[in-house]
Design goal:
The chain has about 80 residues and is mostly helical. The protein has one domain: Orthogonal Bundle (Recoverin, domain 1), CATH 1.10.238. About 55% of the residues lie in helices and about 10% in strands. It has 4 helices and 2 strands. The chain has helices at about 1-20, 25-35, 40-45, 65-70, and strands spanning about 25, 60. It has a two-stranded antiparallel sheet with strand order 1-2. The longest helix has 17 residues, at about 1-20. The chain is globular and about 40 Å long.
Length: about 80
C-alpha cells in the first residue's frame, strides 16, 4: 500500500544519496535525510545498534554504515 510505496521511494532516494559525497553525515544531515526532529534523532542515536560516531567525533557518522543500518531494519508497524 501507500506506506510500502513511500518506503520504496525513500530507499531509492537513499540509494542515490549513497553514491554522492560526503562520506560522513552530521546530525543535521540525518535530520534532513530521515525528516525527523532533534528528539527523534537523539532516540535513534541511543539505540544499541545505531552506528557509532566517525572516529569518535560527536555528531558525525559514516554514511555507508548509516545507510546499511537503515536498510537492515524492519519498519513494519504491526
Amino acid at each position: 500500500p501507500l506506506i510500502e510505496l513511500k518506503l520504496d521511494e525513500l530507499f531509492n532516494q537513499l540509494s542515490t544519496v549513497q553514491k554522492e559525497e560526503p562520506i560522513v553525515l552530521t546530525n543535521d544531515d540525518l535530520k534532513k535525510m530521515f525528516q525527523i526532529s532533534d528528539s527523534t534523532l537523539n532516540r535513534l542515536i541511543k539505540a544499541v545498534d545505531f552506528p557509532k560516531c566517525w572516529y569518535g567525533i560527536r555528531g558525525h557518522y559514516p554514511k555507508d554504515k548509516i545507510l546499511n543500518w537503515f536498510e537492515q531494519h524492519d519498519y513494519d508497524s504491526d
